[in-house]
Design goal:
Number of domains of chain B: 1
Shape of chain A: globular
Strand content of chain B: under 5%
Oligomer: heterodimer
CATH architecture of the largest domain in chain A: 3-Layer(aba) Sandwich
Number of strands of chain A: 14
Largest interface: A-B, 34 and 41 residues
CATH architecture of chain B: Orthogonal Bundle
Strand content of chain A: 15-25%
Number of domains of chain A: 2
Largest sheet of chain B: 2 strands, antiparallel
Strand order of the largest sheet of chain A: 7-6-8-9-10-13-14
CATH class of chain B: Mainly Alpha
Distance between the termini of chain B: 48 Å
Order of helices and strands of chain B: HHHHHEEHHHHHHH
Number of helices of chain B: 12
Number of helices of chain A: 15
CATH topology of chain B: ABC transporter involved in vitamin B12 uptake, BtuC
Helix content of chain B: over 70%
Helix content of chain A: 40-55%
Largest sheet of chain A: 7 strands, mixed
CATH superfamily of the largest domain in chain A: Response regulator
Order of helices and strands of chain A: HEHEHEHEEHEHEHEHHEHEHHHEEEEHH
CATH class of the largest domain in chain A: Alpha Beta
Structural class of chain B: mainly alpha
Chain lengths: 409, 294
């Protein structure tokens, strides 16, 4: 009797296992397109993630209401990479192997992105990057199963040089966080400034530990040679802290500051943000005038009772490009979708864009302007007189990209 | 660069050093009396900063009065937390070896940091400076934030207060006696264990004061506790464990040094505190103001 029981148990167990397999196989093969989101949810990534996830959810809701993509419903599965490359790689692997995801959505941290892109290459699954923006992803660490819809660190550094060199400044200073992102931007900035303005003088370069929020020891050094213009690579909370402390040191009376003023940073800083600072944003919804963006902002605001941060709009743009490519390829097969992606023209929230075949970089520019109060936003300042610096002016040339891609191999 | 600029840097650095002193003196004092290296001192300081933030959101306006209220209310609240910690935990390990004490205080770091994470989350916070301290004063043509001047004034007041307390009052005599001759003090009928509790609370009061001051200086987040405790260790090693005067000197050396060494060395100035620490350990292992262990 006992023996029989055991046999029954084993049979039942096998049936459950088999059933599970049939089930998951079915889901992956026909019903849905599964998007695996390698996200940075905890720590300083939390604010970024909130906007990204809300935008991804919104896109999926709309796409599914319209009948899905190739008749399949979209679905997102999220894993926390915790801003750590090794965890990010494991999560990407898990999303592909256990969760049977067809495509991956990238993280916030560039370090995690560099780890995830390798996993994507290994399993031939397409990943797109919307917030993490190291230029290396499209140059030295390029692999074909990726595309990037966020202006990269090289563009940001060269854009800063382009914007600041057009103004009558001669004496420049730099301050930024002492890790890859800051160094990438600085390198691009320094190179381009030298090219554009021969008499420009880069007087003082100050590196601050990532995460340091007390700038008292650094600001007097930054100002020691009386620069006329300062480029800062700080972002988010660290930038907000820097701006607040720089004000009473009289920094803004003496020099023009140029930095990344994304919506989340502007919201955090609130009314402490001085007026008249120079800055740029990667995707400021309030300065982009086209019907797609307007419709997106309205839907996003109605649903979340909050304005979409830059990261939200860019995460959304990535899904537009991805689903367009899937439709164009009429398949979810990675190789065919990659083929469709190369040179793909898509209607992004930022206007018509295309994906450059050589490095899979979308021709997205940066938006420069001046901080100002705006009656539409009571609690925080935004940029005004915003001008888009088109991607073509600040992207690496195809030759330069190919050279860098070849170096690695 | 002009002499004026160096003077400006000196004043600015001294202000940094004073803030460090306020926190480090608490750590040093606690070690002097309790002989426990309190790893959790930084976490207690961080809690002070976050409590100050929460309280500031309840107060309206950025008047000097509401900021002074923070300075008045938060440090005693943190001292109260110190009371709970001392009576429930620290008291039990005074006679144990240092390794066990270190395990306890390190465990406390993990626990307190996670409590802060649960209550306040990971977002950076800050306390608005009162309007009167938000501007800057002119120091030979350069703008020095009024708030840094304020810290520069608070520091010596605290140092003087501690000195008066330790050397000019009976309570101070008892504390100093507890450092040198705890057994005899007990034999004289003084309740040594309450002396220790009071000292621990004083140490926490100082950490809480530092927390309030830093919350209006810079953004506070989950990392500030760990960062501060490392700086504090450098300070007490340089100045001598248990010596308040040493903590003052060590803090000022580090505060001024970090700023000045950036001129020639740039980002490598971060190494400065550890370099001085190593130097002191080689030349005078018990610190500039400390005494060799008996």
């Amino acid at each position: 009797m006992k023996r029989n029981n055991l046999a029954v148990l084993i049979v039942v167990f096998c049936l459950i296992l088999a059933g599970g397999m049939i089930n998951s196989g079915e889901v992956a093969a026909s019903e849905t397109i599964r998007l695996g989101f390698v996200a940075d949810i905890s720590g300083v990534g939390a604010t970024f993630y909130k906007g990204q996830k809300a935008a991804v959810d919104l896109f999926i809701e709309e796409a599914n209401a319209a009948g899905g993509v190739l008749g399949k419903k979209l679905e997102v599965i999220v894993r926390d990479a915790q801003l750590k490359p090794d965890i990010g790689a494991n999560m990407a692997r898990e999303l592909i192997l256990s969760e049977k995801c067809d495509f991956l959505i990238g993280p916030t941290s560039s370090a995690v992105a560099l780890a995830a892109t390798k996993v994507a290459q290994e399993f031939k699954k397409i990943i797109y990057f919307h917030t993490s923006n190291t230029e290396a992803l499209t140059t030295t660490d390029f692999q074909p199963y990726m595309f990037q819809v966020v202006p990269n660190t090289g563009q940001e550094g060269r854009g800063a040089a382009l914007f600041m060199s057009q103004r009558p400044y001669k004496r420049y200073a730099y301050i930024g966080p002492d890790y890859a992102y800051g160094h990438d931007q600085f390198k691009a900035f320094k190179g381009e400034l030298g090219k554009l303005k021969a008499d420009a003088e880069l007087q003082e370069i100050v590196w601050v530990k990532l995460g340091e929020t007390n700038f008292s020891p650094y600001i007097p050094i930054l100002m020691s040679k009386n620069p006329e213009a300062i480029f800062s690579s700080f972002w988010g909370g660290q930038l907000s802290s820097f701006v607040k402390q720089a004000k009473p040191y009289g920094v803004f009376n003496k020099a023009a500051l140029y930095s990344l003023f994304d919506l989340d940073m502007l919201r955090v800083t609130g009314q402490d943000m001085p007026e008249g600072l120079l800055g740029y944003s990667r995707c400021p919804f309030y300065a982009i005038d086209n019907p797609e963006m307007k419709a997106f902002v309205k839907k996003y605001y109605d649903k979340n009772k909050e304005w979409p941060a830059d990261w939200a709009a860019m995460a959304y743009d990535g899904l537009i490009a991805l689903t367009d490519a899937i439709k164009k390829a009429n398949s979810t097969d990675s190789d065919q979708v990659v083929k469709a992606l190369e040179g793909l023209k898509f209607k992004s929230l930022r206007g018509e864009r295309y994906i450059r075949p050589e490095d899979h970089m979308a021709n997205v520019g940066i938006y420069v302007g001046v901080t100002a109060k705006n009656p539409d936003f009571k609690d925080f300042l935004v940029l005004k007189d915003v001008v888009e610096v088109p991607a073509e002016k600040i992207l690496l040339s195809v030759e330069e990209v190919k050279k860098l891609q070849a170096e690695k191999k | 660069m002009s002499a004026e600029y160096y003077f400006f840097m000196l004043i600015n650095g001294l202000s940094q050093g004073m803030l460090l002193f306020i926190v480090a003196s608490g750590l040093s004092l606690v070690f002097g009396v309790l002989r426990v290296i309190n790893f959790a001192h930084g976490s207690i300081y961080m809690i002070g900063a976050f409590v100050a933030y929460s309280l500031s959101t309840l107060l309206t306006g950025t008047s000097l009065a509401s900021f002074l209220l923070l300075l008045l209310v938060v440090p005693p609240a943190i001292a109260l937390l110190g009371f709970v910690l001392e009576v429930s935990l620290f008291r039990r390990v005074y006679r144990e070896e240092h390794l066990l004490q270190l395990l306890l205080t390190y465990a406390l770091v993990l626990i307190l940091d996670n409590v802060v994470r649960m209550i306040w989350g990971g977002d950076p916070r800050n306390v608005a400076r009162p309007e009167i301290l938000a501007g800057s004063v002119d120091l030979m043509g350069m703008a020095l934030p009024t708030y840094n001047v304020f810290i520069l004034l608070v520091g010596p007041v605290i140092a003087l207060g501690l000195w008066l307390l330790l050397y000019r009052t009976r309570a101070g005599n008892v504390i100093r006696a507890a450092v040198s001759y705890p057994d005899i003090l007990g034999a004289l009928g003084v309740n040594v264990s309450w002396v220790m509790t009071a000292t621990f609370m004083l140490g926490c009061w100082l950490a809480g004061l530092g927390g309030v001051l830093v919350a209006a200086l810079a953004n506070v987040d989950l990392s500030i506790g760990m960062e501060k405790i490392i700086e504090c260790f450098a300070v007490v090693v340089i100045g001598g464990l248990g010596s308040v005067g040493g903590a003052l000197l060590g803090s000022l050396i580090i505060g001024v040094g970090i700023t000045f060494f950036q001129l020639p060395f740039g980002r490598w100035a971060l190494v400065f505190p550890y370099f001085v620490m190593a130097l002191v350990l080689i030349i005078r292992p018990w610190g500039l103001f400390g005494r060799p262990e008996r």
